[in-house]
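This section describes the prediction task in plain terms. A model, or a person checking by hand, is given the sequence of a single protein chain and must write out its three-dimensional structure as a string of tokens. No templates, partner chains or ligands are provided. The sample shown here is typical of the held-out split.
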Amino acid sequence: MKKAILYFVIPCFNEEENIPETTKRLKLKLDSLIESKTISSRSKILFVNDGSCDNTWNIIKDLSENDKTVTGISLARNAGHQSALVAGLLTAKKYADVVISMDADLQDDINAVDEMLDKFYDGCDIVYGVRSNRKKDSFFKKCTAQLFYKFLKFMGVDIVYNHADFRLTSKSALDRFGDFKEVNLFLRGIFPLIGAKTDVVYYKREKRFAGKSKYPLRKMINFALDGITSFSIKPIRLVLSLGVFIFVVSLIIMIYCLVVKLLGHTVTGWTFLAISIWLVAGVQMLSLGIIGEYIGKIYKETKARPRYIISEDLTENKNIFKY
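The expected answer:
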């Protein structure tokens, strides 16, 4: 059996504290896999610098100059984690038979790579790394994460529970993935749409090796909104259902008011009127906000701007500008 060329794709945004240790551990794993003849000696670690403000890119370049197993690309500006990951995947696809994406903070279990590769050689094109538990998460993080996955499922998004972006993807699956051109990226929802043979590997997620999380609550909320509005029209249908419900209630109230008027009863109704006005106004604003979110997505897609721009590409050993 031909030994596959494996590329690790690691998106980085201000990860200068983590990159040296991440490189050290991944090199040990690569050496072990090459020695056991599981993968080709041409396998590499590909770092993607996502417009970092610290010394991240200089560290990557130094590592690349001194170690043939390390390479990287740098984006012209911060494009976001998902776009940086796409840049790395599509770059690695040109050289690798199989790609494993993971974060630079060493929270993903490197030892799970062996089982991922076993499943790849058994015929799987996509292998998802799935957290076996969330014992190391705070109570708030655990509750919001569970709510995130369950809400996406409720909204009709096909997503693997407790899977982030730690996954193995074959070259053929990445070729299919290249046909997805949308600007609003939610990779956890896109890969299940590819239709390839898949499996999962369970692992324990560790704490960050160093630095702070690049996904605060605000970014997590925006990420969830992207996932919902990019893959589901249920919110629009809920707005329609809510509109029908309020219309029916208003008819009932209208009939009630007419009956009271015909019977000669006078009701001041100030409280009822005030509550009704605020309720309807609130529902209208909420509905406009949901519809506006979808219109905003359409606006971004129709402009068809590039998802990222690569300013430096060490894989070709020269500086280039491309989309």
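For orientation: Residues 318-323 have pLDDT under 50 and may be disordered.
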